[in-house]
């Protein structure tokens, strides 16, 4: 600050405002707690109200009369954005406020507090200073010389000067919370980077076909550079392994990455939990379908007929097509398949089940031999690029380490020899119960009779005596 | 020996043992003078822990994967976690009250899993493709251990609220270290320093003003048994409420990092398996809500003037939040995280 008088220096006013009004408010713990709980409460609404459904859905489930809880009609719900809570401006604003609070708190409170604990000249030279500790004692026949090795054995860092001692253990417990906050800032930052520069795409590709990544359903404003222009992917084969009971064991897609000249530059068989990565883009096994059925009628060449998914109301997925059995298309059979296990169901025009055919087998329909050569599956790929991932992962790693560090209790012990008396006191910031026991053990080994005589209650029992 | 019949025997046995253990702990709390109740309770808890561990191990051998794929297995893993956390907490706090709150919960979980769940939900089923990953073991086991620790911590906070009902309490022990100082009413000083008495008296009166008159029997007992004035400096012991509060805090303090690691493991797994580390799936969101509630608790403890019952109320509400996160989401019945439900 260059000026003490605000009226003479106008540029100082915003700075003063930041320092005196905004920063203390943002660093206020009560604001942080309120934000944590507010994010929690608003997140709950998103788990109770179905997210991202159609207008009709909300109209049907949240009618105007009678309104749910007397106010929650579909209009209110959509105006507030409760159909997409986690993307509303107010939820994002809450997260940004939370991030600002986190940053301010780190710089305003945590780092200054650390400076205090890093000093090692923390010696106490007056007996009076020991009175403030709950765990302090005055002994007649003990000395610092005796105490020092006891503390070292308990992994304390011991500092001595003249007739005083300072020892501490677990300073990482003070650093931990700072790194927790820093890594959370890093994760939020990584999430922002990802949202701005990443993209998501989905492709449904029949076995044997080649595709470029085009069906992008979500991309950040600066995602252009991430979307691959000079390579494509060929699905060599898609298949499903089934367990002996007929349940799905695993989905597999054999993928080849091709360059502009259609030369293979990478090949990998992916499955759920095992994606393919190429130039920052990752392809995940996400979905599947039946693309087509390859058949032969009498002596015809193999014909490929596309199959389409037929909507069933919650009755599982079914794909179907229609195979003509007369050249003028006046007769035919409907063909249905439920999975890639190789069984097709044939229905006649009246909807009666004619027969079931296995892949590779044939059957007689309307006087025609219908042979099923193959059921062609299609693989559903989830494709994404997220340049924020390295930042987020760094944040994750640091967060895991630092949150464990934060469990450690920082214990400090002071001692003083003066006028034939020995004073000892100590405190810890988290593990009060364990530290009390440790202090009593230390006192015991210094002067066996002391703590037994002074103990106010039986240490074995914490239940009140009746 | 037949693994299936062994399992059927073990789940009933662990329920029975936990039931007896609960009675032992309650008896021990009601009649602290009866000998051996505490040690019998601890023994019961250890036996239940081993029973459940054997049950899970035999399912592991039978099914060939880490047994955390359905509600039955996860309930038993949670019960195992609670008994394990109980043993750790009881050993480090030497408090017999812990069992009085953990035993009934562990008992209820095993009872629910053994008696209420329909038998088709008790059978080991093959894993769906999405769960075939080593991350399953990492993510789910850490999550369930964190639930166990958080539940025990929240239960101790509830016990603390019950013990301190109707009082205004100032506590020690939080991560900034506003605690660990001597209660000024019980400040000890030597006669040679009587000249400082005036200052101390002023402090004492203010302290008495902030503390309401109605103090527990325990606090009174401690305060009156403390030697006064001319005695040499000696350690001031933690009271029952201080101890309860601190072991609750330490247990939640252990559950919180586990929850954080569990959520991160899940996020990394999701990113490796299907390309998004966070998708606001109901279970994810509830895990985040749990995390936020306990983060608020940890921060409330270091807020000046809030040490006492207020953070404990947050922790106690965390008990409900953990259950909603663990079971409530199944009732919605959607998504990868659902174990399924039976009505």
Structure characterization notes:
The complex is a heterodimer of chains A (466) and B (343). With 466 residues, chain A is an alpha+beta fold. Chain A has helices at 12-27, 29-48, 55-61, 74-80, 89-118, 144-153, 172-197, 389-405, 432-446, 450-454; strands spanning 135-139, 157-161, 164-169, 199-206, 210-211, 216-219, 232-242, 248-258, 264-271, 276-278, 281-297, 303-306, 308-310, 318-324, 332-337, 343-347, 353-358, 362-365, 368-385, 411-418, 421-428. In chain A, the strands form 4 sheets. In chain A, strands 4, 6, 10, 11, 12, 18 and 19 form a 7-stranded antiparallel beta sheet that branches. With 343 residues, chain B is an all-alpha fold. In chain B, 68% of the residues lie in helices and 0% in strands. Chain B is globular, with a radius of gyration of 23 Å. Chains A and B meet through helix 2, strand 1, helix 7, strand 8 and strand 11 of A and helix 8, helix 9 and helix 10 of B.
Major beta sheet summary of chain A: 7 strands, antiparallel
Proportion in β-strands of chain B: under 5%
Distance between termini of chain B? 35 Å
Please, what is the oligomeric state?
Answer: heterodimer
**Relative helix content of chain A:** 25-40%
Number of helices of chain B: 11
- Overall spatial form of chain B: globular
C-alpha Rg of chain A (nearest Å): 36 Å
Strand tally of chain B, please?
A: 0
Record field, number of beta strands of chain A: 21
Helix content of chain B: 55-70%
Structural class of chain B: mainly alpha
Query: How does the overall form of chain A come out from the CA principal axes?
Result: elongated
**Unreliable parts of chain A:** 450-466
User: Which residues of chain B sit in consecutive blocks of at least 5 with pLDDT less than 50?
Assistant: 173-179, 184-230
Order of helices and strands of chain B: HHHHHHHHHHH
Give the mean pLDDT of chain A.
85
Distance between the termini of chain A: 64 Å
What structural category do the secondary elements of chain A indicate? alpha+beta
């Amino acid at each position: 600050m260059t000026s003490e008088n605000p009226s003479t220096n106008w540029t100082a006013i915003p700075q003063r405002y930041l320092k005196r009004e905004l920063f203390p408010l943002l660093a206020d713990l009560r604001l942080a707690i309120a934000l944590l709980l507010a994010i929690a409460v608003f997140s709950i609404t998103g788990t109770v109200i179905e997210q991202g459904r159609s207008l009709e859905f909300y109209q049907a489930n949240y009618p105007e009369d009678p309104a749910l809880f007397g106010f929650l009609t579909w209009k209110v719900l959509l105006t507030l954005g409760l159909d997409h809570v986690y993307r509303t401006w107010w939820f994002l604003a809450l997260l940004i406020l939370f991030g600002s609070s986190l940053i301010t708190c780190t710089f305003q409170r945590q780092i200054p507090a650390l400076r205090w604990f890093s000093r090692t000249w923390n010696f106490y030279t007056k007996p009076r200073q020991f009175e403030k500790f709950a765990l302090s004692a005055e002994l007649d026949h003990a000395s610092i010389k005796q105490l020092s090795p006891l503390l070292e054995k308990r992994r304390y860092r011991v500092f001595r000067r003249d007739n005083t001692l300072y020892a501490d253990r677990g300073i990482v417990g003070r650093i931990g919370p700072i790194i927790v906050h820093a890594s959370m800032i890093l994760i939020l930052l990584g999430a922002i980077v990802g949202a701005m520069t990443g993209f998501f795409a989905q492709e449904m590709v029949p076995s044997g076909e080649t595709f470029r990544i085009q069906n992008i359903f979500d991309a950040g404003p600066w995602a252009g550079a991430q979307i691959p222009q000079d390579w494509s992917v060929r699905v060599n084969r898609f298949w499903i392994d089934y367990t002996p009971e007929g349940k799905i064991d695993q989905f597999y897609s054999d993928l080849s990455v091709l360059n502009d000249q259609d030369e293979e530059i990478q090949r990998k068989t992916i499955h759920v939990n095992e994606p393919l990565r190429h130039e920052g883009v990752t392809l995940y096994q996400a979905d599947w379908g039946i693309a087509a059925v390859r058949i032969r009628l009498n002596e015809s060449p193999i014909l490929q007929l596309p199959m389409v998914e037929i909507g069933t109301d919650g009755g599982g997925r079914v794909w179907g097509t229609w195979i003509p059995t007369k050249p003028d298309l006046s007769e035919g059979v409907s063909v249905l398949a439920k999975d890639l296990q190789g069984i097709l169901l044939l229905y006649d025009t009246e909807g009666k089940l004619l027969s079931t055919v296995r892949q590779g087998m044939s059957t007689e329909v309307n006087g025609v031999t219908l042979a099923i050569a193959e059921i062609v599956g299609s693989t559903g790929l989830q494709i994404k690029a997220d340049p924020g991932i390295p930042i987020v992962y760094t944040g994750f790693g640091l967060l895991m380490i630092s949150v464990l560090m934060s469990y450690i209790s920082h214990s400090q012990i002071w001692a003083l020899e003066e006028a034939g008396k020995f004073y000892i006191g100590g405190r810890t910031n988290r593990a009060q119960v364990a530290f009390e026991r440790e202090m009593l053990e230390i006192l015991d080994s210094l002067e066996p009779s002391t703590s037994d005589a002074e103990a106010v209650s039986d240490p074995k029992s914490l239940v009140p005596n009746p | 020996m037949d693994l299936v019949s062994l399992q059927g025997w073990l789940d009933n046995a662990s329920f029975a043992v936990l039931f007896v253990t609960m009675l032992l702990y309650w008896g021990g709390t009601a009649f602290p003078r009866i000998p051996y109740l505490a040690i019998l309770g601890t023994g019961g808890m250890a036996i239940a822990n081993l029973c459940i561990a054997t049950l899970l191990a035999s399912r592991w051998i039978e099914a060939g994967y880490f047994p955390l794929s359905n509600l039955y297995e996860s309930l038993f893993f949670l019960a195992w976690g609670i008994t394990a956390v109980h043993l750790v907490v009881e050993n480090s706090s030497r408090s017999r009250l812990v069992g009085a709150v953990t035993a009934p919960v562990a008992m209820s979980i095993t009872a629910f899993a053994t008696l209420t769940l329909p038998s088709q939900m008790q059978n080991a089923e093959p894993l769906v493709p999405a769960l075939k990953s080593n991350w399953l073991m990492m993510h789910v086991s850490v999550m369930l251990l964190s639930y166990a620790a958080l539940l025990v911590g929240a239960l101790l906070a509830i016990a603390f609220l019950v013990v301190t009902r109707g009082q205004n309490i100032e506590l020690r022990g939080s991560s900034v270290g506003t605690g660990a100082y001597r209660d000024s009413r019980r400040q000890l000083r030597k006669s040679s320093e009587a000249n400082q008495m005036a200052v101390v008296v002023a402090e004492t009166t203010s302290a008495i003003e902030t503390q309401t008159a109605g103090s527990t029997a325990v606090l009174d007992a401690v305060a009156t048994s403390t030697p006064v004035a001319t005695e040499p400096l000696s350690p001031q012991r933690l009271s029952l409420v201080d101890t309860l509060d601190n072991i609750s805090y330490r247990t939640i303090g252990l559950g919180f990092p586990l929850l954080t690691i569990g959520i991160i493991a899940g996020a990394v797994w999701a990113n490796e398996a299907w390309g998004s580390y966070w998708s606001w799936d109901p279970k994810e969101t509830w895990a985040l809500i749990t995390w936020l509630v306990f983060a608020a608790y940890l921060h409330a403890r270091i807020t000046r003037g809030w040490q006492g019952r207020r953070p404990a109320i947050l922790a106690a509400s965390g008990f409900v939040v953990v259950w909603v996160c663990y079971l409530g989401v199944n009732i919605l019945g959607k998504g990868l995280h659902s174990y399924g439900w039976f009505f």
